[in-house]
Structure formats: structure tokens, C-alpha cells
Amino acid sequence: MHTAAPTLVSPIDSLQEPYDRDRFEDIGFMTCMTLVLLGNYSQTGHLGGPLAYTPYNVATHLAGPDLGGLRFDYRRPKHPYSDKFMLAGGHCIPTCYALWMIMGQAMARKYQATGDRRYYVDPTVAMLPIDALGFRRGAGAMATLLQDHGLADHPLFAQAKLRGIRALAGHAESTDVTNDVNGGPSGIGVACAAGKAAFWDVVGAGIDAPKVIAFEGEFAMTEGHAQELKTQALALKVGKRLRVVLSDNNAGIDDALMGGVIDRQYDRYRIIDQWTSYGWNVFAVDDGHDYDRIVASMRTLEHWDPADRRPMIVIAKTIKGYWPTAAAGKIPDECDQLVGHKSHPYALRMNSEYFLPLARSFETKYGVQFDGIRQGPVKDPRERLVQYKTNIDLVMSVLDRNGLGDWLADRLADIGDTLRDVVPLRMSVSSDPFLDERLRVANLPEQPQTVTVTNDVSGATKDVQVTLFRRAGEIAGTRRCVSEIVKWLNVVTGNRMLTIAADLSESINLEHGNLWGHYDPETNPAGTRLKAAIQEAGNVSTAIGLVSQNASIDPDSFAGVWAISGTYGAFTPLMYTPARVWSQQNQDSPFRTGVLHILVGHSGPETAADGRTHFGIFAPQVWKLFPRGQTIHLSFWDYNDVAPGYFAAAEIAAREKKVGIITLEVARPDFPVADRSTFADTDLRAAAKGFYVIRDFEPGKPRHGYVITQGSSSTVNLVSVLPKLEAAGVNVKVIAAISEELFDRQPESYRHAVLPPDARYDLMVVSTGTRRVWPLRDVGPLTDEYSMTSDWDDQWLTGGLEPDVIAEAHLDAASIFAGVRRFAADRPKRIGRQRDLMAGL
Q1: CA-CA-CA-CA torsion for 202, 206, 207, 210, nearest 10 degrees?
Q2: Do residues 511 and 532 touch, judged by C-beta distance below 8 A?
Q3: How far apart are CA 605 and CA 192, in angstroms?
Q4: φ, ψ dihedrals at 316, nearest 5°
Q5: Is 482 in contact with 508 (CB distance < 8 Å)?
Q6: CA-to-CA distance for 120 and 74, rounded, in angstroms?
Q7: Which residue has the higher pLDDT, 521 or 252?
Q8: Nearest to 490, CA basis, from 479, 501, 482
Q9: Average pLDDT over residues 228-242
Q10: 21-42 and 48-62 helices cross at what angle (nearest 10)?
Q11: Which residues have a Cβ under 8 Å from the Cβ of 260 and sit 6 or more positions away?
Q12: Which of 191, 330, 554, 808 has the highest CB neighbour number within 10 Å of its CB?
């Protein structure tokens, strides 16, 4: 067993154990040929990258856990205790599709031949050769593809009768067999690897429990999200549980890295140094296509000292456009090999001049002959499908040679049999603590609570005070309650709410939600405050990795953690793209996952003294850019809105898999807690309903319209001028907008009582946000003209002290009074103009 190496690059042991190299090479060649056929007949996809990954892909799936390969079960690929395979370089997914089809076919033929259930794979789980037709196609098209071309009963396509044709996306999806990431966009996939690995330390799994193996390329590793992984993984001390394989072929989409993007004169730009300088455990493989060297590297990582908590990376020299029979840049007796960035897309014409040499090399190796490829492109769609499936099946026929198919089926079953249904964990997997009744809004304690908590590692106990609600008049802004809701979650769930927020944890009030301090897998595994640098993208990616894991054998039950990452609202767009991809993954996940939380802290123009670079006016609106119902966005203005609003969202998210993200928008200032006895809706928990009425119309007087208010300073100042507006004869209904998503879930009777459908044509908005995105949808055509927002004059605010900025934003009390009075006075004009607009139709 190796301990930490004295040199910057760790040594790789020579391989002593025998393994079936010839079998690996055959499966590898089949994989390469299959992925080329996918591109040839689909006329889309990627070529060079998937080929470069193929030997490592084959070895990772077939070497077995003792040699550092995946511990997984093809029959149950989403088993919670399987090792996590991440094709972070998502465009390289054809290598996985091809390999998984070959595996699926091997298991199917063996089961058909023997009837032995050991080889049975549910067709809805397996990937099969018929699925080649679904490459880069949509599910709707696949539903009728064969019928549309008169092939539904053709024997060549009989496999489709098992469960149809699976649509295969152009980039890696977490629904794909062993893959556990939506990979591809700008290094986002690999960025969540640290969180995935840390999860298993957090829940107390041994080092022989799930490991994480991630594939990525050198170009994607230049991206900010991926760069931040370097610090994230080291800070979390994930050790040998995280193993990144970097395919280093100096080739991107349009250019080389060295000698292209970076001039070769800068010879100190060395990828290996970029990882050793961050303190990772770095290994170098000079030929990433040689199975002996690949397996030797994998075995070395597997048997490394678990006490070495450095994350691992193997930097393997590969060739983009690799081909099994190529030598010295040539396809023997044929042509030059297509390599480098020019091989990135599958840009070859069907049955073209380069495809044919590749196909002939396979024919020569295995004594087979492809059908119709020498007659040029197939123009008839029906004939293309027939030729496509015929030639896919020809590759699969190699499984019938020399016992290869039997060997592969046995190998998969043997590896699968090493997977256990019970793994010792510190965390209970028998129930979901986020369903605890104490977390329901109706059961939240109104008075401050002192509770005794126990550290489940050390056994230590201490008293903790939680204050979810405060008395009217106390000085406390909305951000002050964030730590209290996190604290209550950790009290109830037993430390299942993790926080990761750069060095802003204290500033945005996450710090005190943690019961046992900073997490450290060696010295404080019960801590829930994860150490992190100022890396918004990396922090949220780590949070995503954490919530993406589930330790429950039952896919419909959740045994995992929730996580919250936050920063200034102005900077949260850095978190958006990872969160967007996470939302897609959560939507389609075959098992329950945790909930990602984004704390959009210090929002609004109130972050005045920091300067306008820090204003959260436009930036927080990105959190509205999700399919409706898949996230819940909360915008708080009063301390006593935070707990009921948040836990209403949490109730939903814990019970509805569709909701994978909760965003909480809060501002910096401290204001007196509102006196709700003066409100039309005096319910302390009113925020749970999404919208609630602060002031209703005064009966018996003319009504002047509806005022929707959102944000801290805007609402506080509006509430402060309500007596003055009443004295001026202004009769408006004022509605606090906390969350449109929560409001949408209320009974129609409540929604119409608060905001009748016709009210949308008779309303204005007062908000610290922007006129570009309203707190509710479908507002009337004159809403913009009368509303009061921070961007009222379509200019960036200039900054200054908080009162200066609020006045500049026209959200001070005097400006709001004047704006609401104008809105009320112009009601006849407003309604008349809209009637004229309708009449014009």
C-alpha cells in the first residue's frame, strides 16, 4: 500500500495480476466500431473524443473492483451503493452508448441461451442494439419510427417489441445506465464530483464503499467550474474516493490547447503542474490507450493508502481520433488517421472515404463484411434503417466468436454480485427525516426554543436556541432568520442540512445554522458547515453533488442530505448554469434526490455601501428561469415571513420529486419586525400562502386598484406610508408577494379572494427588483407604466449609503407615497385606456 509520495507525481506500480487483456481489446474494438456506426448512420454526434476515451471506458467497466474498476451491477445500474461513474466529458457519450449496447446484448443472448436469471436484465434498464436507431433523436420520434417506415414487424427490429427504442441524448445524462452526471456543458459535470464523493464520507461510509470515477478532457478543465473543483475537492479531503481521469490529447473543438490557444513558447503551461500545484495526488500515464498501463494505473489508485486524503487524478496521454489498428498516424494500408480537433465532430458523409477504412480494418480483424457500405450514402430512409441495424448486428455477432459474449456476460454478473444491499453507515437509511411532522408549517414553534442536541460521532451534547419568529418591533432583518431555519432543519433531521458559502457564511447568515461547526472527515465528520473558498460556481456544484446522492435501496424513498449555497444576489448567476443542469437531472432521475437551496443574499439595492457591482436587482431574476413548478422562489421582506414561507416550500419539496430547487432571496438591512395585528391578514404564518393581504379595500369607498409589493425596503417603506395614503383618500389593496409558486398552490377560492383574475389589469408593483421580471405573471399592459422598481429609469444606480440608493431608486417613503397616489388618481384613465385597447380588436 502506497503512502503519500515524496515527489510531485506519484508512481504507478507495474501490473502483476493477470487480466483478460485480449477480451478487453475485443470489446474495445467493438465499442469503437459501434460508436462510428452511430455517427455514420445518424450523421451527427462526436467522433474523436469518444474514441479517445474508449480504452479507459472499457477497463473502468470491466476490470472489476479489485483492480480499481467500477463496482456496479448492470442489472441494477442505479443501485445506491454502486461506484459512481461520471462521463463529465458528456459529448463523448457515444463510447458509453456503444459499450452499454454490447453489454446489454451479451446479457440478453446469455439469458436467452440458458434461461438463467443471473443474466436477466430488465429491457427497460438495459441498453440494447436497437437503441442505436435512437441516437440523438427524441422519444416522440422513436415511438413511431418503425411504423412510419413499414418496419414494425420486420424481424431485424424485433428487439423494439420489448419496450420500444430508447432515445439517446447527444450528451451524457444521469439516466444512462452507469452514468451519474449530466455531462458536457463547460466543465459543469466534473465540478460536482467533489460533492458526490464527500457525501459518502458525510454519511459515514467506509473507504471501500462507493468511489467516484470521473472522465474529462483537458479543454473542459480550463473552464471556471472545473478549475474550482481543484480547491473544492482538496478542502473536503475526499481522498482516494474521488478519481478523475483526464484525457490529455491537446485537442478541443476548433483548436489545440498548446500550440493553438496557448503559444508553444509558454512551455511552463503544463497540465500536470496545474494539478500538483493544487496539492492533488497526481499520476501520469504516457499511453492512455494501452490496456496494461490503464489497468496498472487503476490498480495503483485502488490500493493507495486511504489515510492520504488528497483527491486523485490520472493524466493520461490520449489521441483524439484514436483507432485500435492505427499506427504512426496511419490506418494501415489505407490512409492518414483523422486526429486532433478536426476529429471532434462526426462530420463524415455516410459511408464516406474515411469511414470505409475504419470499417475495413474491423472486417479484416474479425472476418466479417458490412452490408452495403461500399455503395455510398443511403438516400432512402427505410433502407438506411435496415442497413444501419444490419451493420450494428454484424458488430454484435463478434460476441459469438471464441466465447467472447459468454465471457462478457459472466464478467458483468460476477462484478454485479460483489455489490451489497447493506453498507454500514452512520446515517440511518430507514426513513426520510425531511418528512418529519415538526417541519410542517403548522407545527413550527412560535416561541424561541432551547433544545438539546447530541453529536452522533463524539456523543457530546449541548443546548441550542432556535428562534423562528420574533415579536413585533424587534430589530431583525430577513437574513437573520436564515440561520434559524437551517438550525431547525439540522435539529430535526439530525444534521442533514449542509451549508457551503465561501467566506461569506457569516455575512449571509448561514454560519450559525450549523450545530457542530466545520465539517472535516477526519476530525469533525458531524460538522455541516463545509469549508469553501470564494467560488460560487464550485460551491454550488459541490452542493449539487451532495444532494444528487441517495443511500436508500428504495428509489422512491430518500436517505440523503439537503444543501444550501449562497452569496450576494448580484453574484448568484455564477451558480445558475450548474443549477439549471441539476434541475434537468432531478426531473428525470429514477430515484429520489435531495433539494438544492440557493441563498440569494444581500439582494436589492440595499447593498449600497459595497457599490453598485454588488446590487442584486437584475441578477436574482435568473432564479425565475426554470420550468414552472420545478423550483420555488421565495422573496422575503419581514423576519416572520421567512420560517413559514420556507417551510411551506420545504414541505412541498420533500414530498414532490419534481421540486429540486428552493431559492431564498433576502436583503441585508435590519428592520423592525412588522406588527401583523395591523394587517388585513393577521396570520403569523401568512407567508406560507405565497401572497397575503397587508391592507384590504376600505368598504363603501371607491376602489383605486391593487398594489403588489416585494422586497425589503420597498415593502417596509410602503407599509410606513399606508396611514398617510388612507388620510389622502387612497383606497388600494396591498398584497405582499412572497412566492408565486406557493400562491399557485393555494385553493382557487383563496387566490381569487386575494387577487381576482381581473385585478391583473388594475395593479402596480412596488419592488426592489426590476420591471423586466414581475413578481407574478400575466400582468396588464399598463403595469410597467405605473410600477415602482429599482430600474425605473432604465439606468444602473450609482451607489452610496443605503438611504441614498433607496432614494435614487425612488423607493423611499416619499416616492412610494407619490407613486401610489398617482396610480390611484389615474384609475379612470387607466381603465379607459385598456377598454380602448380591447375595443380596437
Answers
A1: -70
A2: no
A3: 32
A4: -110, 125
A5: yes
A6: 10
A7: 521
A8: 482
A9: 96
A10: 140
A11: 250, 252, 341
A12: 191
d(CA 455, CA 356): 65
Question: CB under 8 Å to 462, separation ≥6 — which residues?
Answer: 452, 453, 515
Which residue is it, cell 480499481? Answer: 68
586 phi and psi angles, rounded to 5 deg: -60, -40
pLDDT at 4: 54
Residue 690 and residue 744 in contact, taking contact as beta carbons nearer than 8 Å = yes
- The string of pLDDT tens digits covering residues 473-498 is 999 999 999 999 999 999 999 999 99
SS (H, E, C) 478-516: CHHHHHHHHHHHHHHHCCCEEEECHHHCCCCCCHHHCCC
- pLDDT tens for residues 192-234? 999 999 999 999 998 878 999 999 998 888 888 889 999 999 9
CB 629 within 8 A of CB 659: yes
Q: Give the CA angle between residues 124, 130, 131 to the nearest 5°.
A: 65
Task: Report the distance separating Cα 758 and Cα 762, nearest Å.
Answer: 7
| pLDDT confidence band for 555 (50 / 70 / 90) | very high
Decide: 710 and 737 in contact? Cβ < 8 Å. yes
Residues 6+ apart with CB under 8 A from 150: 382
3-class SS at 737? strand
Cβ-contact 667, 603 below 8 angstroms: yes
| Sequential DSSP letters for 202-234 | HTT--TTS--EEEEEETTGGGSHHHHHHHHHHH
| Averaged pLDDT, 261-289 | 95
The 10s digit of each residue's pLDDT in 118-162 is: 999 999 999 999 999 999 999 999 999 999 999 999 999 999 999
What is the Cα–Cα distance from 416 to 230, expressed in whole angstroms? 32
Dist CA 106 CA 396 (whole Å): 9
